[in-house]
Protein backbone atom coordinates (compact mmCIF):
# COMPACT_ATOMS: atom_id res chain seq x y z
CA UNK A 1 0.00 0.00 0.00
CA UNK A 2 1.58 3.27 -1.13
CA UNK A 3 -1.04 5.68 0.23
CA UNK A 4 1.04 6.98 3.17
CA UNK A 5 4.13 7.80 1.13
CA UNK A 6 2.03 9.27 -1.70
CA UNK A 7 0.25 11.49 0.84
CA UNK A 8 3.66 12.59 2.17
CA UNK A 9 4.88 13.40 -1.36
CA UNK A 10 1.73 15.35 -2.28
CA UNK A 11 1.88 17.24 1.03
CA UNK A 12 5.07 18.91 -0.25
CA UNK A 13 2.89 21.00 -2.56
CA UNK A 14 1.06 24.18 -1.49
CA UNK A 15 -0.69 27.13 -3.12
CA UNK A 16 -0.45 30.86 -2.33
CA UNK A 17 -2.96 32.04 0.29
CA UNK A 18 -3.71 35.12 -1.80
CA UNK A 19 -4.30 35.51 -5.53
CA UNK A 20 -1.14 36.83 -7.17
CA UNK A 21 -0.64 38.61 -10.49
CA UNK A 22 1.62 35.80 -11.69
CA UNK A 23 0.13 32.48 -10.51
CA UNK A 24 2.57 30.11 -8.84
CA UNK A 25 2.61 26.80 -7.05
CA UNK A 26 4.79 26.14 -4.02
CA UNK A 27 6.83 23.09 -2.98
CA UNK A 28 8.79 22.22 0.15
CA UNK A 29 11.99 20.31 -0.61
CA UNK A 30 15.53 20.31 0.89
CA UNK A 31 14.49 22.81 3.55
CA UNK A 32 13.49 25.40 0.96
CA UNK A 33 10.24 26.88 -0.23
CA UNK A 34 10.33 26.56 -4.01
CA UNK A 35 7.94 28.70 -6.08
CA UNK A 36 7.15 27.47 -9.56
CA UNK A 37 5.37 29.40 -12.27
CA UNK A 38 3.56 27.14 -14.71
CA UNK A 39 2.70 27.93 -18.31
CA UNK A 40 -0.75 26.48 -18.81
CA UNK A 41 -0.55 26.51 -22.61
CA UNK A 42 1.68 23.44 -22.88
CA UNK A 43 2.22 20.07 -21.19
CA UNK A 44 5.92 20.69 -20.63
CA UNK A 45 5.40 23.65 -18.31
CA UNK A 46 3.19 21.98 -15.71
CA UNK A 47 4.41 20.15 -12.59
CA UNK A 48 3.22 16.54 -12.87
CA UNK A 49 3.17 14.02 -9.97
CA UNK A 50 6.16 12.16 -11.48
CA UNK A 51 8.34 15.22 -10.82
CA UNK A 52 7.30 15.25 -7.16
CA UNK A 53 8.11 11.55 -6.86
CA UNK A 54 11.65 12.11 -8.21
CA UNK A 55 12.24 15.20 -6.02
CA UNK A 56 11.12 13.27 -2.94
CA UNK A 57 13.36 10.35 -3.88
CA UNK A 58 16.43 12.59 -4.35
CA UNK A 59 15.81 14.30 -1.02
CA UNK A 60 15.22 11.10 0.97
CA UNK A 61 18.04 9.03 -0.60
CA UNK A 62 20.99 11.41 -0.32
CA UNK A 63 23.33 8.77 1.09
CA UNK A 64 22.84 6.32 -1.76
CA UNK A 65 22.47 8.96 -4.48
CA UNK A 66 24.68 11.80 -3.32
CA UNK A 67 24.29 14.81 -5.62
CA UNK A 68 27.05 16.98 -4.10
CA UNK A 69 29.47 18.15 -6.84
CA UNK A 70 28.01 15.60 -9.29
CA UNK A 71 27.43 16.49 -12.95
CA UNK A 72 23.69 16.13 -13.53
CA UNK A 73 21.57 16.70 -16.61
CA UNK A 74 17.78 16.74 -16.65
CA UNK A 75 16.03 16.03 -19.93
CA UNK A 76 12.53 17.39 -20.44
CA UNK A 77 13.02 19.69 -17.44
CA UNK A 78 9.72 21.53 -18.00
CA UNK A 79 9.18 23.88 -15.06
CA UNK A 80 12.60 23.06 -13.61
CA UNK A 81 11.47 21.70 -10.22
CA UNK A 82 13.68 18.58 -10.35
CA UNK A 83 16.71 20.57 -11.53
CA UNK A 84 16.13 23.07 -8.70
CA UNK A 85 16.02 20.28 -6.09
CA UNK A 86 19.18 18.65 -7.52
CA UNK A 87 20.91 22.05 -7.41
CA UNK A 88 19.83 22.63 -3.80
CA UNK A 89 21.33 19.20 -3.03
CA UNK A 90 24.70 20.44 -4.33
CA UNK A 91 24.87 19.19 -7.93
CA UNK A 92 26.27 20.87 -11.06
CA UNK A 93 22.99 20.86 -13.01
CA UNK A 94 22.19 21.34 -16.69
CA UNK A 95 18.43 21.69 -17.18
CA UNK A 96 17.30 21.06 -20.76
CA UNK A 97 14.11 21.28 -22.78
CA UNK A 98 12.64 22.55 -26.04
CA UNK A 99 13.36 26.18 -27.04
CA UNK A 100 9.81 27.37 -26.37
CA UNK A 101 10.04 26.24 -22.73
CA UNK A 102 13.41 27.78 -21.89
CA UNK A 103 12.10 31.23 -20.86
CA UNK A 104 9.84 29.89 -18.11
CA UNK A 105 12.43 27.25 -17.15
CA UNK A 106 15.17 29.88 -16.73
CA UNK A 107 12.83 32.13 -14.73
CA UNK A 108 11.92 29.36 -12.26
CA UNK A 109 15.50 28.14 -11.88
CA UNK A 110 16.94 31.64 -11.36
CA UNK A 111 14.39 32.71 -8.75
CA UNK A 112 14.79 29.50 -6.73
CA UNK A 113 18.55 28.89 -6.86
CA UNK A 114 20.20 32.33 -6.81
CA UNK A 115 22.37 32.66 -3.68
CA UNK A 116 21.08 29.27 -2.45
CA UNK A 117 23.15 26.74 -4.39
CA UNK A 118 26.76 25.64 -4.37
CA UNK A 119 26.75 25.57 -8.20
CA UNK A 120 24.56 27.80 -10.34
CA UNK A 121 22.52 25.60 -12.72
CA UNK A 122 22.70 26.00 -16.48
CA UNK A 123 19.72 26.02 -18.84
CA UNK A 124 20.26 24.63 -22.35
CA UNK A 125 18.15 23.77 -25.36
CA UNK A 126 17.86 20.07 -26.09
CA UNK A 127 15.51 18.79 -28.77
CA UNK A 128 15.72 15.01 -28.54
CA UNK A 129 17.80 13.42 -31.27
CA UNK A 130 18.69 16.77 -32.90
CA UNK A 131 22.25 18.19 -33.16
CA UNK A 132 23.42 16.05 -30.25
CA UNK A 133 27.05 15.85 -31.44
CA UNK A 134 27.16 19.63 -31.90
CA UNK A 135 25.47 20.71 -28.67
CA UNK A 136 26.46 17.83 -26.39
CA UNK A 137 29.65 16.29 -27.86
CA UNK A 138 30.33 12.82 -26.47
CA UNK A 139 33.87 13.80 -25.54
CA UNK A 140 32.59 16.37 -23.04
CA UNK A 141 29.60 14.41 -21.73
CA UNK A 142 30.66 13.48 -18.23
CA UNK A 143 27.30 13.21 -16.54
CA UNK A 144 27.12 11.25 -13.30
CA UNK A 145 23.32 11.32 -13.42
CA UNK A 146 20.59 11.79 -16.00
CA UNK A 147 17.25 12.75 -14.47
CA UNK A 148 13.96 12.37 -16.31
CA UNK A 149 10.31 12.50 -15.24
CA UNK A 150 7.32 11.89 -17.48
CA UNK A 151 9.30 12.10 -20.71
CA UNK A 152 7.44 9.11 -22.19
CA UNK A 153 3.85 9.72 -23.24
CA UNK A 154 1.88 9.81 -26.48
CA UNK A 155 4.40 11.80 -28.52
CA UNK A 156 6.05 10.71 -31.78
CA UNK A 157 9.65 11.16 -30.60
CA UNK A 158 10.23 8.02 -28.56
CA UNK A 159 13.05 6.75 -30.79
CA UNK A 160 14.73 10.18 -30.61
CA UNK A 161 14.39 10.08 -26.82
CA UNK A 162 16.13 6.70 -26.73
CA UNK A 163 18.93 8.02 -28.96
CA UNK A 164 19.31 10.99 -26.58
CA UNK A 165 19.56 8.80 -23.48
CA UNK A 166 22.18 6.69 -25.25
CA UNK A 167 24.16 9.72 -26.44
CA UNK A 168 24.35 11.38 -23.01
CA UNK A 169 25.28 8.17 -21.15
CA UNK A 170 28.80 7.15 -20.30
CA UNK A 171 29.62 3.76 -18.76
CA UNK A 172 29.24 5.01 -15.19
CA UNK A 173 26.25 7.31 -15.77
CA UNK A 174 23.16 6.52 -13.70
CA UNK A 175 19.73 7.31 -15.12
CA UNK A 176 16.99 8.03 -12.57
CA UNK A 177 13.75 7.98 -14.50
CA UNK A 178 10.16 8.27 -13.29
CA UNK A 179 7.31 7.27 -15.55
CA UNK A 180 3.55 7.35 -15.38
CA UNK A 181 2.00 4.46 -17.27
CA UNK A 182 -0.99 5.59 -19.32
CA UNK A 183 -0.95 3.68 -22.62
CA UNK A 184 0.57 0.61 -24.26
CA UNK A 185 3.22 2.91 -25.80
CA UNK A 186 4.90 3.24 -22.41
CA UNK A 187 5.33 -0.53 -22.08
CA UNK A 188 6.75 -0.75 -25.61
CA UNK A 189 9.24 2.01 -24.86
CA UNK A 190 10.41 0.19 -21.71
CA UNK A 191 11.02 -2.94 -23.82
CA UNK A 192 13.05 -0.90 -26.35
CA UNK A 193 14.93 0.83 -23.52
CA UNK A 194 15.93 -2.55 -22.05
CA UNK A 195 17.74 -3.41 -25.29
CA UNK A 196 20.31 -0.69 -24.53
CA UNK A 197 20.16 -0.33 -20.75
CA UNK A 198 20.07 -2.46 -17.62
CA UNK A 199 16.85 -1.37 -15.95
CA UNK A 200 15.98 -1.78 -12.28
CA UNK A 201 12.66 -0.80 -10.74
CA UNK A 202 13.42 1.03 -7.49
CA UNK A 203 9.93 2.10 -6.41
CA UNK A 204 6.36 1.67 -7.51
CA UNK A 205 3.35 3.84 -6.70
CA UNK A 206 0.30 1.90 -7.92
CA UNK A 207 -2.22 4.55 -6.83
CA UNK A 208 -0.47 7.05 -9.15
CA UNK A 209 0.39 4.46 -11.82
CA UNK A 210 3.99 5.65 -11.48
CA UNK A 211 7.26 3.71 -11.39
CA UNK A 212 10.77 4.90 -10.54
CA UNK A 213 13.64 3.26 -12.38
CA UNK A 214 17.42 3.23 -12.18
CA UNK A 215 19.25 2.42 -15.42
CA UNK A 216 22.81 2.07 -16.68
CA UNK A 217 24.28 1.24 -20.08
CA UNK A 218 24.47 -2.43 -20.98
CA UNK A 219 27.88 -4.08 -21.51
CA UNK A 220 29.67 -1.36 -19.55
Automatic annotation (TrEMBL):
Listed name of the protein: Methyltransferase like 21E, pseudo
UniProt organism field: Myotis lucifugus (Little brown bat)
GO molecular function per UniProt: methyltransferase activity
One of the GO BP terms on file: methylation
Record-linked Gene3D superfamilies: Vaccinia Virus protein VP39
Residue spans crossing the bilayer: none
Record keywords, A-Z: Methyltransferase, S-adenosyl-L-methionine, Transferase
Keyword Metal-binding among UniProt keywords: no
Keyword Plastid: no
InterPro entries registered for this protein in UniProt: Methyltransf_16, SAM-dependent_MTases_sf
